[in-house]
Amino acid sequence: MLIVxxxxxxxxxxxxxxxxxxxxxVVEKAGALRGGGYPIDIRGTAVEVVRRMGILPQLxxxxxxxxxxxxxxxxxxEIASVSARAVAGGVEGRDLEVRxxxxxxxxxxxxxxxxxxxxxxxxxxxxxSEEGVDVxxxxxxxxxxxxxxxxxxxxxxxxxxxxxxxxxxHRYLGYCFALFTMPNTFGLSRELLMWNAxxxxxxxxxxxxxxxxxxxxxxxxxxxxxxxxRNPAAxxxxxxxxxxxxxxxxxxxxxxxxxxxxxxxxxxxxxxxxHWSRGRVALVGDAAYAPxxxxxxxxxxxxxxxxxxxxxxxxxxxxxxxxxACERDLRGFVAMNQGLVDNGGATLFxxxxxxxxxxxxMLRTLVTLPAAPARPAHSALTLPAPTPLP
Length: 390
What we know:
With 390 residues, the chain is an alpha/beta fold. The chain has helices at residues 9-19, 45-53, 56-62, 84-88, 100-111, 157-163, 226-229, 232-242, 250-259, 286-289, 298-315, 319-345, 353-366, 376-379; strands at residues 2-4, 25-28, 39-42, 68-72, 78-82, 96-99, 116-119, 123-128, 133-137, 142-145, 148-150, 170-183, 191-197, 200-206, 212-220, 264-271, 277-278, 281-283. Strands 5-4-13-14-15-12-16 form a 7-stranded mixed β-sheet, sandwiched between helices. A 6-stranded mixed β-sheet has the order 7-2-1-11-18-17, with helices on both faces. It has a 3-stranded antiparallel β-sheet with strand order 8-9-10, covered by helices on one side.
């Protein structure tokens, strides 16, 4: 079996499939495992997945214990300082926040000795038959696999080969964002500072006591800036123009963004597909059902989806039945998580002055309230027992 993508869903799926007796190859277009990256959450059902994988202790060691989130107005004055869980609805002592790269490295280490990894390559074409999938790689190599699973993210090339252009399935949510790192000249430690004005936000995130910060610029835009998505220089110029004249430390952040060598620019969006498979090729994680960063559930959905897909393949007589069973069991959970945005998941980034005032009033009440309970969307999925070892 071939898995395309070696970030989160891919190695997690490889672990469970290998455990079920499959011979697995993972291909990754990057030349090496991608380290670093912004913090991500592992919540609810996904915590049970990593526990069953045996990597929960390592992830607890990598856990970022963020102490507080401080919200600032357009002039940089403090509105409220609250616990991270009061905002996100996590479960203290259970849910995890780790660097994306730490999770990827831990997953890779779990399977690298049992699974074949091909770095610096990717599929160019698929040719399906009753016997398998003939894959021609961009390197020129040709191989045949029983099944192919695309775990190559929101902008999946596998999905495009299978179903067509992303525009058909991409639900744009009205925001653009730029992520990058910059020096921690502010003395921040395990905390988030977020500045807001109507339609735009700037945040500084210190995951520890180090010399580096994760910086984040996001802004509302009614239509996606398609040209900028293909042009790094245009991305920097667009963000700089939107934040021109902003207060607080935003000018320094814009300057750092212009100079950053790790800028990641994208839109907030979801992938909504009528089906997650065609023939012997299927999709998992963001490639199939990206919920958007606004939900905070992308990595958790990837882990849970990988588990259910592997379980379906291990317990059903053929791939068609397995793919159908996975969709049946996972669709409701995906819809619930994608619906978090519709139910106010974007309220941290209000687009009008009135909405911003309402959000600030809500934040002030959180100071005196206990942490919010876990959201059902984090844990409403019941996992079947692991399949016995072959």
